Amino acid sequence: MRSDNVKKGSAQAPHRSLFNALGLTQEEMDRPLVGIVSSYNEIVPGHMNLDKIVNAVKQGVAMAGGTPIVFPAIAVCDGIAMGHVGNEIFPGYP
Fold first, then answer.
1. What are the backbone angles phi and psi of residue 51, rounded to the nearest 5°?
2. Contact at 8 Å (CB) between 48 and 82?
3. Cα 81 vs. chain centroid, distance in angstroms?
4. Positive or negative CA dihedral for 58, 62, 65, 68?
5. Which of 38, 39, 44, 66 has a 20 to 30 Å separation from 74 between CA atoms?
6. Long-range pairs of 61-64 with CB within 8 A, sequence gap ≥ 24
7. In which region does residue 62 sit, left (phi positive, over 0), alpha (psi from -120 to 50) or beta (all else)?
8. Left, alpha or beta for 23 (phi > 0: left; psi -120 to 50: alpha)?
9. 24 vs 88, more confident
10. Residue 5, Cβ neighbours under 10 Å: how many?
11. CB-count exposure of residue 67 (10 Å: 0-12, 13-18, 19+)
């Protein structure tokens, strides 16, 4: 499986140590690692409920025999980003 590239072999011992530090069990390490990207945060109103969706996706991945690994993505909110000094880069933008 693709995730074996970071799990198997002596050269990947540092990788495994990081996964172990995260609390992954050997059983979880034996399954495919499945990345789940999320822009959940507590400042962008449209992203406030993404944690619930992420948890449902994690359960689905686990039920399908994988090990879910969540990692972040940047979230931008136009409502917060507009109308301040930092907007001078885009003159005329609201």
1. -60, -35
2. no
3. 23
4. positive
5. 66
6. 61/34, 61/36
7. alpha
8. left
9. 24
10. 11
11. buried
